[in-house]
Amino acid sequence: MPHPARPTVTLHDVAAAAGVSLSTASRVLGGSSRTVAPEYAEKVLAAAAALRYTADASARAMRRASDSIALVADDLTTASIGLVLAAMEREARTVDAFVTVTSTGGTPPRQLETVRLMCALRPRALVLTSSRLDADLMEGRLLRELLDYRRDGGRVVIFGDTDMPFDAISIDNRASAALVGAYLARAGHRRVTILAGAAERANVSARAAGFVDGLSAGGVHGDDIRVVHCDVSRQGGFAAVTRLLAAGPLDTEALVCANDVIAIGAMSALRAAGVRVPDEVSVTGFDDIPLATDVTPRLTTVTVPLARIGRDAIRLALGDHDEPHRTTEHGELVPRDSTRPRA
């Protein structure tokens, strides 16, 4: 008569019985080169023996073979994510790891589908970049997928705003953008148009709100602040300004753009129409991508430490800590030639 199957004992069970973190149990039983204090190693080994834990050899081999860190991004075409990715790759190479990349288009179903696929491939860690990732997204299914992945020994890092219980790096977009609004108000600009990007994207929406905060605090009346939504791209900025010019004379003293590529598209449309920057209208951006100093005139913008964010994301992904680390980065205003004071 066949014996009943013995209940599967997981690494999570061993860690709980030993009273240690999952990562500690994984290092002891997985043959990690990282040192574990002898007293903790003894607890893990004793718990594993008592529970008759047997490692899944194939899964362990997959884990050891994979030195990849998977980056799951909303959009890989932006200049800012390119800077983050380059820094991630540099940092990963210092520990003989490498970065694999995939994009989701920012849609929740595609995010869930992509994360499931990446988890099945068992990378060493997952880094997700998105303007906003909430725990209740897709009725909590994305969160459950990520928690299962972490329970199996993976690490999760999020670059963006989130309420999920993982390591996270965010940018205070609203406060950073307020610096631009305050600067323009001090420079005498009283009629301002904000090229706000897509309304559904949390990061550029926060920047638009911050621009309004800074302008209002500097004395610009709300009726003199116009918000125009557009694609978050060079073509989006070009098309938005082209439409404004087609409606009549450009009744604004400054174009405040949600990022640098929108601003570069806007300046191109102004130049094509013979509108001089900054003599007739000031233009500002956000992110401080390398192209911001190559255009003419050089772009006034907000610099964000994108390279540091990429480096720190990898360090968190490869880190040895149990409690989630949360970091908020702040931008700094960089005035250049695309703005000038108004009377």
From TrEMBL:
Top-level taxon in the UniProt lineage: Bacteria
Could you tell me which residue ranges the HTH lacI-type domain spans?
A: 9-64
Q: Which UniProt keywords apply?
A: DNA-binding, Transcription, Transcription regulation
Does this entry carry the keyword tRNA processing?
no
Pfam families of this UniProt entry?
A: LacI (PF00356), Peripla_BP_3 (PF13377)
UniProt GO MF annotations: DNA binding
**Quick check: keyword Cell division in the entry?**
no
Region annotation (Disordered) ranges: 319-343
Q: Per its record, how is this protein called by name?
A: LacI family DNA-binding transcriptional regulator
> Which lineage is the organism of this entry classified under, starting from the top rank?
Bacteria, Bacillati, Actinomycetota, Actinomycetes, Micromonosporales
